């Protein structure tokens, strides 16, 4: 099991050139527990990891990850809670991760930047209009997985 500190900033995309993004990875996350968040993540039906995330402060978490999970075991664990799942396609723009959500959350687009140190400078491309949501619990994946429908005001206007 790997232990790390995740220090990230998160932004909701209001408008952006989503249709131009390429080479995304399909991610399915199933939550076994919401508090604390314990999730199983499958990336492109290949890479399987179980995470436990302990919140320290807004944008900063302790993360425990076990990547010795088989696809068969990951799928079995996820089937236990069929309603606590999210699906998204993750694209990378430099060190930024752009998550384009699918299913019940279609229309939601979030950008995350994992900082190597607090206050590390970064740039969001100028053709993206964003709102920072770091620390807003509504945009944490373990809360998003509980939504039946995306609030209309969170929908990205794709360019």
Structural account:
This protein is mainly beta and 159 residues long. It has one domain (2-158): Hypothetical Protein Pfu-838710-001 (Beta Barrel), CATH 2.40.320.10. 8% of the residues lie in helices and 47% in strands. The protein is built from two helices and ten strands; from the N terminus they run βββββαββββαβ. It has an eight-stranded antiparallel beta barrel. A hairpin with a 4-residue loop joins β2 and β3 (38-43). It is globular, with a radius of gyration of 15 Å. The N and C termini lie far apart (41 Å). The model has no long low-confidence stretch (mean pLDDT 90).
Structural key phrases:
single chain; 159 residues; mainly beta; Hypothetical Protein Pfu-838710-001; 8-stranded antiparallel barrel; 10 strands; 8% helix; 47% strand
Can you identify the CATH class?
Mainly Beta
Largest sheet: 8 strands, antiparallel, barrel
Task: Indicate the percent of residues in helices.
Answer: under 10%
Strand order of the largest sheet: 1-5-4-3-2-6-7-8
CATH A-level architecture: Beta Barrel
What portion of the residues fall into strands of 2 or more residues?
Answer: over 45%
Structural class per helix/strand content? mainly beta
Mean pLDDT: 90
């Amino acid at each position: 099991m790997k232990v790390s500190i995740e220090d990230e900033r998160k932004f909701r995309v209001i408008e952006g050139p989503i249709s131009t993004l390429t080479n995304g990875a399909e991610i399915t996350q199933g939550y076994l527990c919401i508090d604390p968040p314990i999730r199983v993540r499958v990336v492109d039906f290949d890479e399987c990891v179980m995470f436990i995330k302990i919140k320290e402060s807004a944008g900063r978490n302790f993360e425990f990850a076990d990547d010795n999970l088989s696809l068969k075991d990951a799928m079995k664990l996820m089937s236990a809670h069929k309603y606590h799942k999210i699906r998204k396609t993750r694209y990378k723009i430099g060190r930024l991760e752009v998550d384009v959500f699918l299913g019940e959350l279609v229309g939601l687009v979030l950008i995350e930047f994992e900082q190597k140190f607090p206050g590390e400078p970064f740039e969001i491309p100028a053709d993206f209009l964003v709102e920072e949501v770091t620390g807003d619990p509504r945009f944490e994946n373990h809360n998003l997985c509980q939504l039946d429908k995306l609030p209309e005001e969170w929908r990205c206007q794709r360019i």
